[in-house]
Structure formats: C-alpha cells, structure tokens
Design goal:
Rossmann fold, 2 domains, alpha/beta, six-stranded parallel sheet, 322 residues, binds NADP nicotinamide-adenine-dinucleotide phosphate, globular, 15 strands
C-alpha cells in the first residue's frame, strides 16, 4: 500500500515521504480501515518535528515511535479482527489511531464509530481529535450553559471552528476572534459577534465573558483575565513560544494561580475517547455540528499539508483525501 512514512524528526518535506509498504497486521480487537480521508493539524506538524521536546517520551526519544504518520481517519471497514463485535466489512467509520496517512490503517475497535449519514469521508475525518478538544474545552472545562457569554480566540481554525458550534449548541452567546479575512466564516459557523484581532483587542470597551476558550495567539494571562468575569473560566487550549515547552509555561502559571483567585484558570490536555466521538457524531446527525473542511490535499501532498497547518492561518480543518 501507499503510506506516508515518518522515519526521522524534522521538517515535514524532509522527514515525511510517500512510499510503498506492507499493509498493517491486524490484532484481534482491530479493524482494518480502507482509509478515504485523514485530517491534519498543528499537532501533526509538532509530532513530525518532534516538538515540543517535553513530548518526546510519547513521540519517541530519538526516532518516531510510529513509522506511518497520521492520526484522524475516516473510511470503510475492509477486515475485522476475530474479537471485533461492533463492525462488519463495508461499514463506513471514522475515529482516530496511528498510521492513518496510508491506504489502510489498523485501528482499535474502541477508537471508531459509524460515520453519520449525510457527511463525506472528508468531513468525518475532520472531526475526531479537533472535535474532541473543542468538546472537552467547552463542555467539560468551561461547563458552558444556556445564555453564557463565551469568547473563542482562534475561532476560524481547526479546533475553533468546532468550539464555536459546540458553544452555540450549548446555548451560549458566542464571540469569535479571527483575522479580517475569516470574520464572515466565523459568523457562518454561528458566532453572534466577531472580533478582528488585527484591529481590535479582546476586552475593548470593558466587555467581559463568562468563559474564554483560548486556542490561538499568545495573550498574557493578565490580558485574558481582564476580559473574564470575576468568577469566569479561562480554558487554555493552544499556546506558542519556544521549542522546549511551546507556551506550556503560561498554562502552568494559570493552573498555579487559579486556586487563589475568583476566576478559574485551566489548561486543556485533550484525549479523544469513544463517548465523545459518539457525542460529536450525534450532534452532526442532529444538525447542530457541521465539520468545516478547509484545504484538501491528495495523499502525495501530505508533507505540504502538514507544513501548511504548521504555519497556521488556515480556515477550518485541513484534510488529506486518500
Ligand atoms: N490542549 C489540547 O489538548 C489541544 C488539542 C488540540 C489542539 N491544541 C492546540 O491548539 C492550537 C490551535 O490548533 P488548531 O488546529 O485549531 O490550529 P489552526 O487550525 O491553525 O487554528 C488556529 C487559528 O488561530 C488564528 N489565530 C492566529 N493568530 C491569532 C491571534 N493572535 N489571535 C487570535 N487568533 C489567531 C488563525 O486564524 P486567523 O487567521 O483567522 O486569525 C488560525 O486559523 C494549537 O496550538 C494546537 O497545538 C491543543
């Protein structure tokens, strides 16, 4: 099969190469997915480069642990291991696993669910890791409820495009922060208000929010806290700066300060799980969530796709069609 091999850490165009390799062996609880689409995100770019260094124990210390790149997946079941009970050959599925930038991927049964009717493989592949991060930030960390005012910083991106829709689905009044060219896109996701971060600060006019989902940029904690209600909740999802921790210090400071102030300052470390994947699938079926597919690339261009998402500035989720 064709697969995108990741045999050393480095820039995507040097560290990744499309090559012919054996289809993966199938364990008892695994499903062989004929991959139709994979999505890529900044996390794939970081993993390709082996950054931040503190993540090396999970990526592989000297060389990548996983020889084939790719995490999110959507496709068609081609074979099932003897212990698999939920899927049959021919089912359309989506989920997450390793080695999904390939024609076939062996994925544990517990990391897949059926693809909702009416969406494409590309849309389904956009959901798993970014959708889970957004759901866990909005529902679990911020506990957004009816009528809450929520500021989503980085609203036009892979995680933000889900966070805006999920916050709306929970009844929030959503303000999305994005650059000028993405403001209409963020409104179309359902945001009630938008802030253009190229011309405006987040708390101008004394505006405060019940929750801030901070996905992009590198705003100081004091700037974020000024825009938060006295008893509001900040959820730091993304950060930038430095190859060692990549902004992790801001998240550490936020959680250290939080017990001593009225506001709740927290950092998200998301993990996809089956319950959340099924929740997201139900939201898609109910019409309250529509994955926003941005740039789409063929498998041979996966290194370029990962380079592009590493640079940021995309719109919605970047997808690789296989
Ligand atoms: N904590 C976790 O568990 C977790 C999980 C997933 C992702 N993440 C992290 O979350 C971050 C975002 O991931 P993503 O996939 O959504 O990235 P993305 O698709 O690149 O989206 C980020 C968006 O942020 C916007 N942006 C850039 N600079 C900004 C600024 N100064 N203020 C406001 N918005 C700005 C950009 O849109 P505009 O051009 O419109 O500004 C961009 O589209 C990454 O750092 C990623 O590593 C963390």
């Amino acid at each position: 099969m064709q697969a995108v091999l990741h045999e050393a850490f480095g820039a995507p165009t040097e560290a990744l190469r499309l090559a012919e390799t054996d289809a993966p062996p199938l364990d008892d609880h695994e499903v062989l997915v004929g991959v139709r689409a994979t999505s890529v995100a900044r996390g794939d770019w970081l993993m390709t480069k082996g950054l931040p260094y503190i993540a090396r124990p999970s990526y592989g210390l000297r060389n990548p642990k996983h020889r084939i790149a790719g995490l999110d997946v959507a496709g068609v079941v081609r074979a099932v291991g003897p212990e698999v009970s939920r899927f049959r050959v021919g089912d359309e599925v989506f989920g997450w696993g390793h080695g999904t930038l390939a024609e076939y991927a062996a994925i544990p049964e517990a990391q897949l669910t059926r693809t909702p009717a009416g969406i494409t493989h590309e849309q389904a592949a956009a959901i798993p890791t970014s959708g889970a991060a957004a759901l866990q930030a909005v529902r679990d960390k911020a506990a957004i409820g009816q009528g809450d005012s929520v500021l989503v910083i980085g609203a036009s991106g892979g995680v933000g495009s889900f966070a805006v829709q999920i916050a709306k689905a929970h009844g929030a009044e959503v303000t999305g922060v994005a650059s000028t060219r993405n403001l209409d896109f963020v409104r179309a996701l359902g945001a009630d208000h938008v802030i253009d971060h190229t011309t405006e600060g987040i708390g101008e006019g004394g505006r405060r929010y019940r929750a801030i989902i901070d996905i992009a940029g590198n705003r100081s904690l004091s700037e974020l806290r000024r825009a938060l209600d006295p008893d509001g909740t900040l959820v730091i999802v993304g950060g930038s700066g430095g190859n060692i921790t990549m902004g992790f210090g801001r998240a550490v400071r936020a959680t250290a300060v939080s017990p001593f102030i009225g506001q709740t300052l927290s950092a998200l470390i998301s993990e996809p799980n089956l319950d959340d994947l099924e929740t997201l699938a139900r939201m898609v079926e109910a019409g309250s969530l529509a994955p926003a597919v941005g740039a789409t690339y063929p498998l041979a261009d996966a290194p370029r796709a990962i380079t592009d998402v590493g640079g940021g500035g995309g719109r919605g989720k970047a997808v690789v069609a296989v």
